[in-house]
Structures are given as C-alpha cells and as structure tokens.
Amino acid sequence: MARILIVDEEKNLCHLYRMELAEEGHDVVVAYDGESGVQMAREIRPDLVVIETEAHRENDGVECLSNIQREHTSTAIIVNTTCSPRLGDPWGSAVDACVLKSPDLKPLKSAIHKALEKRQGGPTYTRHWRPQPREGNGLPQLNSWGG
Fold it and tell me: Which domain holds residue 23?
C-alpha cells in the first residue's frame, strides 16, 4: 500500500501506530526526533508523514515539518498533535490533516486514508452517475451506475 513515516518521540505510541498500520499493509518507518525524521524522509521518500510538532526540543517538530514539506512536495502530511485541532489551525492548507494525538487510532487512520486517496487521485471505488438518454422526451435518465 503506502510508505508511511512516523515522526514522534513517544516510543510506545509509535510502536502502536506501526503495528496497526502495518496490519493494513503499509510499510511503516519511525523516527524519534525531527532530525532523524528529515533524514529518513530523504532515504525512504514516504508517501505520507505523520508528525508530532510539539517535540520537547525547541522547534524540533516544526522545523522537521518545514524541511519535509520543502523537500518532498508530493508527500501527504498529517500533524498528530496534543492540542485540539480547530478552525483557524495555524497549519491551514500546508498539511493534509491535523489529528488529536490519541491511542484511539480511528481518527488517525481515517485521516491517513483520506490523505492517501487525495494524493493518489481519489478512491478506486468511487462511482459516478452517467446520464443515459431517455427515449421519448429526450431528457437524461439517471437509472444506473456508470463506470
């Protein structure tokens, strides 16, 4: 599936994320600080990065995020934060999602799936209505799934 880089200093949470995402078929690599995260991104060229920006070292996570964005413009980025994501988030459109850090992986997995779909041109299961000409009055008839 996707190559995912997790940048977070909490080793237990990283282990949980790695196990869960690997079960879904993703190739998951972990870096425990911003400097290692930038180096790993250069080496593995991830499809998606999950990054915690509140690292204990000053600006470590933010600096890592900036470097990855600058060097890997097509990589999806999810900020995994301890601060509640809200409207007016300082990341704005610079990241694909901002998720509240939690052992409950549903919100993070959902954000990962959406970000990967967006970067890969949308889900493969999306169907579109295709208007079919209707006999008689000539109006389009939406009576079947198109492909």
Answer: 3-146
